Amino acid sequence: MATAVVERAYTPGSAADFDRLYRLTYPRIVRTLFAIVGTRAAAEDCAQEAFTKALRAWQTWSGDVPAEAWIHRIAVNTAISHRRREQIRALPSLLRRLGAPPPGRDPAGHAEERSVVAELRRLPPKQAAALVLRHYQGYSNREIAASLGVTERTVGNWIAAALQTLRSRMEIEV
Fold first, then answer.
1. Residue 141: pLDDT over 80
2. Domain residue limits at 77
3. How many whole angstroms separate alpha carbon 174 and alpha carbon 171?
4. For the chain, what is the domain count?
5. How many CB atoms are closer than 10 A to CB 161?
6. What is the pTM of this model?
């Protein structure tokens, strides 16, 4: 007869518990962030930054939300900040290109643009995060709401809007 594995509760400030949280959640965090930032390297960088922030705040984690949701909130916010910084860095090159005629379409570039990850990156970051947490990570709307610090209704609205946008952009049934 198989016995169910029961996860022990996390203790704020416990180094062993933070190590356990890291080992159990790191792969999921990276997968979530990949869908938001678009590259594995950026996702891993954001995950490391998020875990560094979380470690600094581990003593003060109140336990009012599950530790997994807490670390996802930090990670998603880190990825959103990364995307904002990326957009700001891209602004000078965008300004230099204004006025020049657009180059011809490269078929390989067009195929890449239509990839799901590329389309996820075009969504508002919080919509992309909610969609990834729901459909790729399997979280419930309640868990996503706790992770992102919003209401379940907001999560539902973000997911619905993201799916509608993806449907119209990719002309597929999502």
1. yes
2. 15-94+113-170
3. 9
4. 1
5. 15
6. 0.60
